[in-house]
Specification:
Layout lengths: L15 H7 L15 H21 L12 H13 L7 E5 L5 H13 L3 E5 L10 H7 L4 E5 L13 H10 L4 E2 L8
Parallel strand pairs: 1-2, 1-3, 3-4
Helix pairs in contact: 3-4
The structure holds pyridoxal-5'-phosphate.
The site of pyridoxal-5'-phosphate has 12 residues, from helix 3.
Length: 184
């Protein structure tokens, strides 16, 4: 039987040129980039080149790029990293019901574990879009984080992040955007 694979958003084969570019780092240049010896320094240089390339891809500064093991760890780091310093002070998190489970479960765990955390889940329309007006209405002075993904992993909806962000920025609220499905 012939199979047709239609789940490239979940995972996709690596392009041959990427395999070719990566191969030296599994064999010759295999040092730990945190080590100070020659092998480590070679690996570190390659890592910094990769950091520059990723930064150029998304229009960021190299110093703003942190490598993690993947999307789940990145989302955990962003959500917990912003919220942990809040301690016992009550706060609100604003998100949507169609975020990836690595965001929704993290936020849900925070809401369940701590009585002082209020999770507000904004409704989305039939295309999966958040209304800028509904977002604005949900932003209270105790809102500590807004988490809205850029490209949805199931239905492909692109959220109007450019339109949503000014109202969040005006209030100096951290805005977490899961862009895992958008970069490529
Ligand atoms: C939108 C989104 N966020 C996060 C993740 C989690 O990424 P990872 O599988 O690298 O942990 C995925 C995975 O497909 C995703 O689609």
């Amino acid at each position: 039987m012939q199979h047709i694979y239609l789940d490239h958003n979940a995972t996709t084969p690596i392009r041959p040129e990427v395999v070719e570019a990566m191969l030296p780092y599994f064999t010759g240049t295999f040092g730990n980039p945190s080590s100070v010896h020659w092998a480590g320094r070679q690996a570190k240089q390659a890592l910094e080149t990769a950091r520059d390339q990723v930064a150029a891809l998304i229009g960021a500064k190299s110093s703003e790029i942190l490598f993690t093991s993947g999307g789940t760890e990145s989302n955990n780091l962003a959500v917990y990293g912003v919220l942990k310093p809040r301690g016992a002070t009550p706060f609100r998190i604003v998100t949507t019901p169609i975020e990836h489970s690595s965001v929704l479960e993290t936020v849900k765990a925070l809401g369940t574990d701590t009585a002082s955390v209020e999770v507000v889940t904004l409704a989305v329309n039939s295309q999966g879009r958040v209304s800028p007006g509904a977002l604005e209405a949900a932003l209270t002075p105790d809102t500590a984080l807004v988490s809205i993904g850029l490209a949805n992993h199931e239905i492909g909806t692109l959220q109007p992040i450019r339109e949503l962000s000014p109202t969040i920025r005006e209030r100096a609220i951290p805005f977490h955007v899961d862009a895992v499905q958008a970069v490529g």
